[in-house]
């Protein structure tokens, strides 16, 4: 039983690491989108609204 408990702990650790990495990735992508095309992302406000194409 001791071995299984260890495995479960490891799985949880991996899960949390993956979750953190995915969140990081999403944040990074959102930042990229806001820089390149603010119009695509409703979450970001264009820096210069007068530059509407």
Tell me about this structure.
The protein has 53 residues and is mostly helical. It is 66% helix and 0% strand. The chain has one helix at 2-36. The N and C termini lie far apart (64 Å). The mean pLDDT is 71. Residues 23-53 are annotated as: Disordered.
The value of Rg in angstroms is 20 Å
SSE arrangement, N to C: H
Which overall shape is indicated by the principal axes computed on the Cα atoms?
A: rod-shaped
Roughly what percent helix?
A: 55-70%
| Biggest sheet features | none
Classify the beta-strand content into a percent band: under 5%
Q: Indicate the mean pLDDT.
A: 71
Find the count of extended strands (DSSP E, 2+ residues): 0
| Unreliable runs | none
Structural class, please?
A: mainly alpha
Note the total helix count: 1
Gap from first CA to last CA: 64 Å
Which secondary structure elements does this structure contain, and how are they paired or packed?
Elements: H1 2-36
Short description:
With 53 residues, the chain is mostly helical.
Features:
single chain; 53 residues; mainly alpha; 0% strand
């Amino acid at each position: 039983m001791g071995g299984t408990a260890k495995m479960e702990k490891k799985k949880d650790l991996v899960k949390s690491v993956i979750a953190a990495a995915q969140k990081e990735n999403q944040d990074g992508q959102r930042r990229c989108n806001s820089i390149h095309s603010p119009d695509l992302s409703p979450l970001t406000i264009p820096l210069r609204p007068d530059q509407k194409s």
